[in-house]
Amino acid sequence: MGSKPRVGVFVCHCGENIAGSVDVAKLAEEAVGLEDVVFATDYEYMCSDPGQNKIVEAVDEEGLNGVVVAACSPSMHEETFRNVVEDSGLNRYRCEIANIREQCSWVHRNGGTSPTSKALKIIKGAVQKVKRNIPLEPVEMDHSDKCLVIGGGVSGIQAALDVAEAGNEVILVEKEPTIGGHMAQLSETFPTLDCSQCILTPKMVQVSRHPDIELMTYSEVREVSGFVGNYRVTIEKKPTYVDPDACNLCGDCEDVCPVEVSDEFDEGLSTRKAIHIPFSQAVPSSYTLDEDACLGLNPLCCTECSDACDADAVNYDESSQFVEEEVGAIVVATGYDLYPKEEMGEYGAGSYQDVVDGLEFERMLSATGPTGGEVRRPSDGEVPNNVVFIQCSGSRDPENHNPYCSKICCMYTAKHAKLYKESVPDGNAYVFYIDIRAGGKEYEEFIQEVQEEERVLYLKGKVSKLEEVDGSLRVTGVDQTIGEKVEIDADLVVLAQSIIPSDRAEEVSKQLNLNLGPNGFYKEAHPKLRPVESIGGGVFFAGAGQAPKDIPDSVSQGSGAAAKAMDLLAKPTLSQDPQVVEIDEERCSGCGLCLGQCPYGALELNSRGIAEVNEILCEGCGTCVSGCPSNSLSLKNQTDEQVNEVIKAYVGD
Amino acid sequence: MKLTDSDQDLVAEVEELSGENLYACFQCGKCSASCPFTDEMDELPNQLIRRVQMGDRRVLQSKTPWVCASCLSCEVECPKGNDIPAIMEAVREIKLRSNVDETDLRDLDTRGLPEIALVSNFRKKTG
To answer: Are residues A259 and A275 in the same domain?
Structure first.
């Protein structure tokens, strides 16, 4: 600080969070005694409007040139208080947070170290740091106006449509030959029982016709470089060997194709040809030749499909195309998969034909599915009279499977039971559950209706085993309400398999430098306050890739992610945190060690052979600073001197 | 018990006699929580309803319907508006209609008993 430091200390009670174990009044009193501190006060909630006003007033009245807010973690409110300090006329970097909540009051709630004296040391450290902070101005940069959406399920579709409607160009990348995701496979949707395809396919068509959406199906993102606002993306467009503009969906190619393979859209309950269309309303409406299933393209082994095609749409010479795009924001909507039933040893590990998972049962219920909407068991095509639904299969089981609740299974199981009873009115439906979690608009009402009107017996308890006895499946469970074991000889068992992140999530997280939580779902910047943003910014989450979600939540988050992306793209320029690395050109020997240490590729040797930092790429992590052998790198406002002074304040001189 | 062998006639009969939909019960347990006589019962009212839902004929041997005094506490509190005393009465009726007389008059010590007690005793022991 040029002029003599005049620091103000503002101690927050955070209700009882801090004041419960820290003597906040005493802290404010003692803070005034610290060197260069000219003002100190305490207040119940510093982040509230009156609390913020106290800072503005004190800066003005006391002529402060440094502010220390002793409160919660800087990841919570540093931004808030720096904005306040900026509003009061100081440079925003004249503000430091002394974290006396997470690092003091919360961890010393039960005594031991005196929380008040520790809090004072933390404040002392922050004072030492703030008075050495230099004013900084944000680094400004241009950005691309395009948005990339990865994943064409319902949340990706929603995000793409919203961003495009706002006037930004969108590239929607989907790995399958059609958009629609899992929602396209569903029969009807809870709790209103709208037909899934009837409400989804118009949106799919809207995507394909939107002038600002470039739809890339059968494509995958292969490489991503760059940073917020300026990502460079390489997308592989796999060959479909069919020209979508020429294809008229006559289906002649499919009729003559000699290869039959398991149909993934029907979850393996039916077969498809090597040249196929996933379902009749697929978007784009065109056939795809599955290279892996085809008898052989190189050398060409069979030309049946091409010979049959009157439109001349089949072209065996297609190959993968790699498209490079520059985008400003990315929405990640890679969705979910079901935890494989093969993992369920207690339920036959996938060996029983008549034990199906939720998506297989959806296909059985679907009018366009393998059974034409009739419930028929896979083994012999008979209509099952006793159907057992097992909830939490693979969920809420930290010891053997997944620890979390998959959130949507209670509702879809009730829907399954209802649709089964409508299809087979004389049949018996039994549902085994641990709890019914029906938190959602009109969800609980739906569950009660299914129990009451459809007369579905809900049994509280998890099934312990399934075994084949005399041609039926013996289900052994318990009903905890009467405290007795129950057995059911079932004709069909439906497992509500746990929701897991799509297998694409791991690769996408590596490409985009995203964090994954303990169960492989994308980790958001803040679980409550920034649920659609990634920690690094510029990448936003939509749908079940972030956590298990039903359709309304996926659509809402798709719109949420779109709004965040639009917010970014609408700014004329983006500003970057200026707390970046600085290079002492006199000292740097040009050894280049820092170049390899930087995780962001922000350093390079300039024409004079010394290190130079790209301030836009630099994230201020400080790795290079600690690695530099000649000590010629330093972080702005995190200099060696500042770090040393903070340590001295903590441990005493 | 084996649910696929359950007695669906029992379910139908109790529903007909009581006029209640047994599947409306979602086993919240409030009936049992409000019942003043659960200490004297061999199973809780909600458990009895579950057994009837399951078509478990052993419910006819339960003491619970006979302890029930039809005080209506459960009915007042039931969130689904089920008339639980009517279900209890239905179970008692089914038992009574089976016409098994378990009373041996010679065993009855009638000294000092009010007539009404005798009548209710007959009713309980009949069936």
So the answer is: yes
